[in-house]
Amino acid sequence: MITPDFELSQDPDFLTIIIRVPYARVSELDLFFEGEDFKFYVKPYFLRLTLPGRVVENGREKASYDTEKGTFTIRLPKESPGQYFEGLDMLTSLLAPKKLRTAKPLVEEIGVPADLEEEEEEEFDWEIEQTLYKEAAESPLSLQCYYGFGNLRSGVFQRLQDELGDVIDVKDPDRTPTDERKMKRLEAEAAKFDPDHYLADFFEDEAIQHILKYKPWWVDAHEKMMALQEESQSNDSHTSVAFSEEEREQLRKFTNKSYLLDKRSRHHVYLGLIDILLAYCYEICVNEGDKNVESSWNVRKLSATLCWLECFTSIHDVLVSFGRRVVCYPLYRHFGLVTRAFNDTVMILQLGRAAVLKCLLDIHRIFRESDPAYILNDLFITDYCIWIQKVKSKKLAALSESLQKTTLAKSHLGFELEELEAAAVLVLEEESKLTAAGMVSRQQLPSSESETSDSEESSSTSSSETEGSDSNERESSTAEDRKINSLQDLLQEERTAPLIDCNGLRQGTNASTFEVSDEKSKASLQSPSVPGKLIEELEKQMHTAMRLSEQPEGLASASGFALQEREENHISEPARFPKVTTGKGDFLEVPSKTNPLLLFCSTNEDED
């Protein structure tokens, strides 16, 4: 038999059921409804529903068939007009048989009459429930490690370890207890946290701020619900969430199940639901409602329930785990995205189970199209999709209220984010100060360069002036040297002139002539002969030439002192004059030749 496509709607007096049965034999229609039971059969389609409210057959019921669309429209009167039937969009729950709507264990009756057993065997039981394959009992250690929805599964990863190694982060979950999973998760998150990545998203958050402006579908739905509550002054306003054709088809394919959950398991299921919704809200916000190849990775990586098979004990633990994983793993690691996902999850829970179911169906489709993440549908999402349809709206309202009261701060995540941000702000302030100082120095650089050029020009000018003065000095000194040289030449001529004696004959230059006594020398200098007057005149000219010359201070003073001393010595002791050697640094060097004047004077004395 084929389960047809169907949908339910209502008004205050009637329940309307639309059933699509293309290519069906309308002549073989069989319809039954009474109380909460509804059965529809037309070959090859069969539909059995357990209604959320009671209907009655009172003559106002009506059915019609559209041949072009192949749809039956059935209107059933409500037993209590004005009653609101809750959960008409929970198609999987409506398909559940009546006797399995509760999770209470079935009671087996002993001693049933044989004729009743035969009658039951004659009819085909459409309500037979199939069970999944379970392996034989394993070691005691592996039996203690359960996971999945309500911790009802074990041994799954032993059979599929090769395929599922990339789906979850915990290694060998069948032999890893819950406490050990949590410890390893915290260690992995601490090793993965990157301060540089976090600070980059913290300071350069233009893309993140753009993402935070995106509004998914539940934002508008929540605003409408709040507006209706303000108008009606009641919290019981019903907000309809529309399901697409694909989502309805997905609900029809689910096999209805009942779950035997104790109080602790139910607690884990509710907290796991919050964790999964937080990861889903992050994914929708970051990608702005679009799906990509990273969607499956984002949802399962940010949810510790899916990635580490975590079993939480409080709502605060859920928020801390989600916040830690947001700042460690995805592309955008910003605490603002944690807050946004938190607020979105609160809105979804306040909208009721229809909104929660719509989100779970979207997660189911994401995992179904991702290989090998599909196994997470079998472990968690499919069971959540079936289970949520039977959850009372008051439970979800209480859950959303508890979540809204829970607070999460950066200090709770354990990564010292506030201290890290404060240190980074100080570094930026120091860098800004250094940058400002660099700008000021760059602005002052052109003026300093101009000053430097000016100083260079002035220095070049001064150097040129100095060079000019040096050249002038050199010219003047050259001129003076020429003058002195002329005087020296004159002196030399006068020295060479007495080489011709009074008789017109050339005198000899024997070395014996140098041996002159001091007394004769003094006498010759004091004699009023012509050579003595010539020497006095030359000495006066030499004094004048030395005054005109400009020498360096040290050299001039030294040479002047030497010359003065030598002049004094020359006047007082003319006999020592030829003993002065060259290389003394004196201004006027006396050659090592024989002094003819002395010879001439001494000769005259001898003659006298």
UniProtKB/TrEMBL annotation:
**Protein location:** Cytoplasm, Cytosol; Nucleus, Nucleoplasm
Q: Which Gene3D superfamilies match?
A: 2.60.40.790
What region holds the CS domain? Answer: 1-89
A Pfam family matched by this chain, by name?
Answer: SHQ1-like_CS
The entry's keywords = Cytoplasm, Nucleus
A biological-process GO annotation: box H/ACA snoRNP assembly
Return the GO cellular component terms, semicolon-separated.
cytosol; nucleoplasm
Molecular-function GO terms, alphabetical = unfolded protein binding
Which regions are flagged for Basic and acidic residues bias?
471-482
Q: Which PROSITE patterns match?
A: CS (PS51203)
Please classify the protein's predominant subcellular localization into one broad category: cytoplasm
**Annotated region Disordered: where?**
438-482, 568-588
Q: Which family does it belong to?
A: Belongs to the SHQ1 family.
Q: What is this protein identified as?
A: Protein SHQ1 homolog
Question: What organism does this protein naturally occur in?
Answer: Chrysolophus pictus
